[in-house]
Specification:
Elements lengths: L1 H8 L47 H24 L7 H15 L1 H16 L11
Helix pairs in contact: 2-4
C-alpha cells in the first residue's frame, strides 16, 4: 500500500513503478504541465489506454478538491474557531480558494496518476513479459 501511494504521488508508471508518466517533473511548467509520455520509458506501458481516457480525471480532481475544502474547513473550525457569526468564514473562503488554485497543477497530475493506476495494475514480472 505504501509503495502504491509513493508511485501515485511521484507520478510513476503503475505497471513497473519506475518510469515517469509526465515529460516534465515540474507541475508548474504550464507549457508542459499535462504533457505525458505516450508510453512508459521503462516498461513501454501505454499511458493513454483509449481515446478520451483522461476525461474521467475531472471527477477525480473534483473529489480531491472537495476533500481539500472539507478538510480545511474542519481544521479551521477546530483550530481557529471559524464560523459565520464573526465573519471569519470569509477569510477561510478567500484563503482556501487561493490555496486551491495554487495546488491545482499538482492536483491535476495526481488525478491522472490515480486514474491510470486504477486501470493498469502493478506487475512485478513485467520485464519477463516483453
Amino acid at each position: 500500500m505504501i509503495q502504491y501511494l509513493k508511485t501515485v504521488l511521484t507520478n510513476k508508471c503503475p505497471r513497473c513503478r519506475q518510469g515517469n508518466l509526465f515529460t516534465s517533473n515540474n507541475a508548474y511548467n504550464f507549457k508542459h504541465n499535462l504533457s505525458m509520455n505516450e508510453h512508459c520509458p521503462v516498461c513501454n506501458q501505454s499511458t493513454e489506454i483509449e481515446v478520451g481516457f483522461y476525461y474521467g480525471t475531472g471527477y477525480v480532481s473534483y473529489a480531491l478538491s472537495v476533500a481539500f475544502l472539507v478538510t480545511s474547513y474542519v481544521a479551521s473550525v477546530v483550530l481557529f474557531n471559524v464560523n459565520i457569526n464573526n465573519n471569519t468564514i470569509f477569510w477561510w473562503l478567500g484563503i482556501t480558494c487561493f490555496l486551491l488554485l495554487a495546488i491545482q497543477p499538482p492536483m491535476m497530475r495526481l488525478s491522472r496518476s490515480l486514474w491510470l493506476s486504477w486501470f493498469v495494475k502493478y506487475d512485478k514480472n513485467w520485464s519477463k513479459k516483453l
